Amino acid sequence: MSLKGALLASTVLALPTAAIAQETQDSGIEEVVVQGQYIPDEKRATSEISNILDAEAFARTGDSDVAVALTRVTGLSVVGGKYVYVRGLGERYSLAQLDGSTLPPLSPLRRDVPLDIFPTAMVGSVLVQKTFSPEYPLDFGGGVVDMRTKAVPDEQILEIGIGTKFNTESTFKGGLSYDGPNSEFFGFGGKMRDLPAALAANPTLEGMTAEERNAAAEALPNKWSIDAEDNLPAAKVDFTYGDRFESGDNAYGFLISGNYENEWDNEFGERNTYATSNAGLVPRDEVNAEACAKYESGDATDCGRRVTNQNISLNGILTVGAELGPDHALKATSVILRKSTKRASIEKGSFASDPGSIRTNSETWWEEREVWWNQVSGEHHFSHDSDTFQETQVNWLANYTRSTRDLPFWREFTYDFDENEQADLLSPRTDGNRTSYGALKSETWSGGVDILQPVTLGDTPVDFKLGAHMSDQDYTSSMLRYGFVFPAGANIELRKLVPEIVFGPVNLDPAGITLAEYTDPSDEFTGNQKITSLYAGIDAQLSDVLRIAVGGRYEKSEQDLLTFIRVTGEPDPVSRSEEDFLPAATLTWEFAENLQLRLAYSQTVNRPTLRELSRATFVNERGENVRGNPDLLTADIDNYDARIEWYFGAADFASVGVFYKDFTNPIEESYTILGEGPLKSLQNAAGAKLKGAEAELQINLPVREAFGWDFVGDREFFFNGNISYIDSEVDLTGQDTQATTLVRPLQGTSKWLGNASIGWEEFETGERVSLVLNYQGKRIDGTGLFGAPDVYENPPILLNFVYKRNVDVFGGPLEVSFKAENLLNDDYRRTQGEGIFEQYDLGRAFSLGFKYSF
């Protein structure tokens, strides 16, 4: 029997056991009756410090995607509604896997994976492991989020669900939108957004005649204006169908599942930036109603920041499995995940580039993110006629993943309010309008084999673990930028009109408005990263109360990048090869019945990404100039963890843990000056430290027994709660930087994180009721420069209510669900010093869903 199986079978009695010896009247043989409860808890069986979310946890909280669901896990925070940070460590320390294969990022400028693209309806469970073990990659900072797809069912299932959602700030409220094809309903941008053939043939416009350039200009769709439209309620449809067939000793099965969602949300508020002076913090950009009133210019009723996002998700999964006798299993899974965002944005206010005047910046945006994930895997067991060597387990996998992110037909344009004309005029500046096309593609081939060999050495069960993995990732990213140029002259009357008239065919002419190309050479790059790894470890039960897991992992990382210098256009190749062998060890001591202490130590690394190694300057998602650094060193991390766990009921446990991380050469943001603006870069800081504590409690509440409330019937009441305290510090002293704070917390780290949920379950009717609270403390979102304070994000305090119940309809169960979100009506807010950097109302949301099982 493997060590894990032995532990589950012999040491997971959660309640004090009683062995009752009785002599039977018939035979005189003593009968031993063991009273206790078996808890097949992966968190207890594993040697590492971890948390598990399963289908039951998803049902209790009613979360629709993995990113939101992970906010319930101790020590986890979610940024932007999609990026998960473990123990407050930022994007560069995040690692996400699906069925054991590492997922590539979906942005050329980020290294983390947006987990909002994974619906909980298609995920069987999620493991969050916070201590490093050798079977995971060495680039392991805060922890790993390992999602597992749903398994092939044991019997036939067919489920169909529909749902809708109403938001008090968005639904049936005036939103922003723009014309697009009908295919947007399913998340496809349509041919209208494709790069015109004339530009695809010659993206740089180089060598074009004036007539050819004019034809290329006319080929661009003449769609600019943003319209006011009422937002519809959200819509959701999902289905699952699966079956299992048996033939002799073999069994075969399949599972197919699909999910579709369409949702609108408004972000109406304000956005400001600040600088310092002798008088203190002073505004630079003022996108708010007060700005218009202050300068007594233009109409103040529509001043501020107005954004409407329409998010469309379309996902599918197909799993086919075969059990060839009791010892061999094969599984093939294909997953396609798509999330598209249609955004319309209008910002009206005063800007630092032209202080004292009113400007309106408008933007239309369409983004498609897609992951196509394919994997075949096998699990094989080989028996031995030996008392020492138990059954050998061999697992293998082969994976191909393609990730894409498309930004087709992204448009920006600006109108300035003219005091003399008392009208808004389309800006004639070269940056007054832009039409951009962006694309990113990542292809990854990976594979690996893992061997588990349980042995018995004397009376000691030991698991020997061996494994080898490889991955080969190709990465391409490009961006094309164009703009229309006005001829010399005022053109005032023309510029008063809407863009569709200004840039209409009658005004596009070699002697009139012409098309120019503004693509930076650094907007295009290609890269490749190969990682080859080997690992070995042992997991030994040294005694009835002491267990140790020790191992190490070897990795060879090879990175090759080609991009181009922004100014000169010269090639800028970067090549790097590194080898590391690092250890990990965890000791588990069951010092009392159902009480165990875990102690863990490991060494891991944090490598710079391909983009971070490039000298080329590029513009990130927030419009900031960013330059990589080919001299970046790989950061080394020493990790220390300790946690006490107490299992005192069938589903009851409590834990208290502490952790400490010591960073050598951590990679941090740095700023210098480029022209009149800041240039963001990356440098190795002198050092950084992170320490903290976390506590968790999950308990079933004996309400009926304690209060004698018979009316509660068979309802089982529960409480889940956790709290984390995280203290971090990074030292930027000695860097070539204009950052205000040289010793500060790590970016993205909240000092306090907390979750609580209370409710009940009644299994006869499938009734589930939960009140769920989530708190994330403020965290640094941007670095302050030239004496200005850092920008802090203040996440909303979210209080949600979830209700579910099964109703018998036509002989089958119909699950009815209701969810109310943000009951406290908290808003989203970023601050800089005493000033508001960004603010908008989230609104309360109410969801209603129905799922029928045939």
Draw up the topology in text:
Layout: H1 3-10, E1 18-23, E2 30-35, H2 42-45, E3 50-54, H3 55-61, H4 66-69, E4 76-79, E5 83-86, E6 94-98, E7 101-102, E8 123-129, E9 143-149, E10 157-167, E11 174-177, H5 197-201, H6 210-219, E12 227-230, E13 234-247, E14 250-277, E15 280-287, H7 289-295, E16 304-324, E17 328-349, E18 359-382, E19 392-418, E20 423-426, E21 433-457, E22 460-485, H8 492-495, H9 499-502, E23 514-517, E24 525-541, E25 546-564, E26 571-592, E27 595-606, E28 617-619, E29 625-627, E30 635-647, E31 653-664, E32 667-674, E33 677-684, E34 687-701, H10 703-707, E35 716-731, E36 743-744, E37 752-762, E38 767-776, E39 779-782, E40 791-794, E41 798-809, E42 812-821, E43 827-832, E44 835-841, E45 845-853
Parallel strand pairs: 6-9, 29-33
Antiparallel strand pairs: 1-2, 3-8, 4-5, 6-7, 8-9, 10-13, 10-45, 11-12, 13-14, 14-15, 14-16, 14-44, 16-17, 17-18, 18-19, 19-20, 19-21, 21-22, 22-23, 22-24, 24-25, 25-26, 26-27, 27-30, 28-29, 30-31, 31-34, 32-33, 34-35, 35-36, 35-37, 37-38, 38-41, 39-40, 40-43, 41-42, 42-45, 43-44
Task: Pick out its properties.
single chain, mainly beta, 22-stranded antiparallel β-barrel, five-stranded mixed beta sheet, 10 helices, 45 strands, globular
Describe the protein's architecture and organization.
This protein has a 22-stranded antiparallel beta barrel. It contains ten helices and 45 strands. The longest helix is centred in the first third of the chain and has 10 residues, at 210-219. The two termini are 39 Å apart. Mean pLDDT is 87; it is low at 4-27 and 34-40. It has a domain at 1-40. 7% of the residues lie in helices and 57% in strands. It is mainly beta and 854 residues long. The chain is globular. Residues 385-782 form the TonB-dependent receptor-like beta-barrel domain. Belongs to the TonB-dependent receptor family. It is found in: Cell outer membrane. Residues 1-21 form the signal peptide. Its main location: membrane.
